[in-house]
Structure formats: C-alpha cells, structure tokens
Amino acid sequence: MTIDHDRRRPRDGQGSRPLIAHILYRLDVGGLENILVELVRGSVHHGFRHVVVCLADYDEAFRRRLPDGVPVHALHKPPGWGLGTQWRLYRLLCQLRPDVVHTSNLAALECQPVAALSGVPGRVHAEHGWDMADLDGTRWRYRWLRRALSPWVQRHVTVSRHLAEYLTERVRIPKRRVRHIYNGVDTKRYRAARRSSEEDSGQGGVLVIGTVGRLTAVKDQATLIRAFARLRERFSAKRGDLRLVVIGSGPEEQSLRALAAELDVADAVELTGNCTDVATRLAAFDVFALPSLAEGIPVTVLEAMASGLPVVASRVGGLPELVEEGVTGTLVPAGDPEQLCDGLAGYLQEPHRRSLEGAAGRRRAVEHFSVEAMVGAYESLYRELLAPPARSGSVARKG
C-alpha cells in the first residue's frame, strides 16, 4: 500500500484547497460560535474550505451567518457518551475526508480519536474556557480526560495564557504541543461611537450600563442586576438616569426578570433577548459589564473594547489579559455585587474616565485582538500540520 505524504493535496480530491472540519457540540449564539464564524469567513477565500459538524444540532438563523457553500451537519447526539454518535461521526469523516479536524471545548474532545482512526492527518483541539461544571479547572475527572485523549491531538490551542498554563502545568501536556491564539474581533464592524462633549462630561442624562452574553449561571447576570440595584440606591438622586441593558437569551431569563422585579429595578432593566445587530446596541452603551464566574477570552469584551467602551469585569480566567486595570477598565471579584457596584460607580462619579478608558480599550483591541491576526494564526497552524514531512537528507546537522 502506497502512502501519500503530500498533505498539501486535499484528501477529498475537490479542487486544490484543504478541507477543515470544525466539530463542536452545538452551533448557536455564543462566543465560541462567533469565533468559528469569523474564522471561516476570514479564511474561506485564503486557501481553505470548511465544513461544520455539530454533535447535537444547530440554530438555523445562526447557521445562515456562515458563508454560502459551507455545509453544516448535525449528528443529534443524545446525553452521555454517545457511541452511536461516534460511529456516525466516523462514517461522516470517512465520507468528507477532511485534511484537518478542529474540535472545540471538552464536549468535542472525545472526537479526536475518531478523527485519527478515520485517517484525518491534521488534528487540532481548542480550549475556549470552562463552565459551571468546572469553574476553575480543578475537577480531576476533566483533567484526566484531557490528558488521556491528548495523544490523539497534534496541537492544543488555548485562547488565553491562563488556559495554556492550565494545560501545561496541571494537565501536563508538553509545551511544544500547546499553541496560544487569542480570539479576534472585527474592529471595522465594531467602532467607537461619537459622543458629544456634553455626554463626555457626564451632563448628558441617562447612563447606560450594558452586557452581552447567554443568560446562563456561569455568566452570572444576577450579580450584575443586584449591583445595579445597589447603584440606584446609592445614587438615588440620579435613579431615573441609570439604565441596564442585558442582551442575550438562555435558561436564566425568567429568573433574571423575577430578580429585577423583586429588587424594584424592572423599570430600568431591559432584557432584549438575542440581538442581530450587537454593534449598534454597543454604540449606545456608556459602560460594558461582564460579571462572569469563569471565562476564556470573551468575544463580547473584545467587541466592547473595539466599540470604545470601558469594561468592568470579573477578575477570572483570561479577563485580566484583556482588561488593563485603570487603563481600559476595572476588574472586580466574581460574585460580589457590592464591589461590582463600586466599579460601576466610578464611571458615574468620574465620567471623563469613560472616554479615556474607552479610547484606550479601542486602541488595545485594534493592536492586539484583530480578527485578521486570529485568522492568520489559525491558517499558519493548519499549514504547519499539513506540510509534507522533512526529508532526512534536507535536515541540517547540529554543530
């Protein structure tokens, strides 16, 4: 049997561009999913083709954000290990014959052995962050699972230095197989709004505090609503000028509405549901808040920074890598409404900080977190994995 080592030639024989198969649990509104869309959009015209495989299913409206011609497959995985799903995935990969499989987060990591057994030559796994099941990465079972499946993975990608240290120091994956690639944002789509001098000086009336994210326990919007209620109590004279906008949907929506009513702030809290034009809504905010209990490199914070907003966020995960204390925003302990209230109050008491820190955040997003830099880093990684093996005669001797 002859083995073709020239991995630059697509395995499926379709054209000359390698095929990347992205595997994730579900394609729906979320940070990881936004990054996937941006990655596909950015590289689809630069030498790669893409296909998306959802272990569960997908949201049709979100699927339409992908470029035309990018297929999406759903395997309808039931809860649990799902051996039947793995068999369907094996058959699908044998049919698609991708050149690289790119899995995302722990739920898709178990697909790496299937990819290897189906003959996929390039295998990447990306870690985007943790959830309520393992807020700080301390659960032994999940560390063991990552370590056990790591031999099937050629490159582990982390979106933050925090996650890279977790993989190398606590999971004990060799550093040479861990690659750090920051998430990126379209800084042309998200731009700083032009605010009047009256607004910059704090005389412009309503102060809008906003957040974007799925309404789930790990995002902890409940702490933000409690902090907002304290803020209205503390600045009772300006009570009518303070508003909170929560963009997103999810299982916590009804409990958050009930909490706002219980704290007597329902008249000033707007829960919008999902939004198709987040950039426009961000342009109407004065301060962005993210009270999460755990995070990787959240896309919503990058979008807020690119929009010229100061960010008040929890000091968890990769957030300290984004928010520079006193320069682009404020970091506070997670789950503490009082300290979150203090952080927000600073932008009410010193309104000039909004424009100063917002402008600094915009510069930081443009310089370090562009979608172009992210796409370029992933493209380089794919090419590295698909490069033909070096011939022994061309390897230079060590002096």
From TrEMBL:
<feature type="domain" description="Glycosyltransferase subfamily 4-like N-terminal">
    <location>
        <begin position="29"/>
        <end position="189"/>
    </location>
</feature>
<dbReference type="InterPro" id="IPR028098">
    <property type="entry name" value="Glyco_trans_4-like_N"/>
</dbReference>
<dbReference type="GO" id="GO:0016757">
    <property type="term" value="F:glycosyltransferase activity"/>
</dbReference>
<dbReference type="Pfam" id="PF13692">
    <property type="entry name" value="Glyco_trans_1_4"/>
</dbReference>
<dbReference type="Pfam" id="PF13439">
    <property type="entry name" value="Glyco_transf_4"/>
</dbReference>
<keyword id="KW-0808">Transferase</keyword>
<dbReference type="InterPro" id="IPR017522">
    <property type="entry name" value="Sugar_tfrase_PEP-CTERM_Stp2"/>
</dbReference>
<protein>
    <submittedName>
        <fullName>Glycosyl transferase, group 1</fullName>
    </submittedName>
</protein>
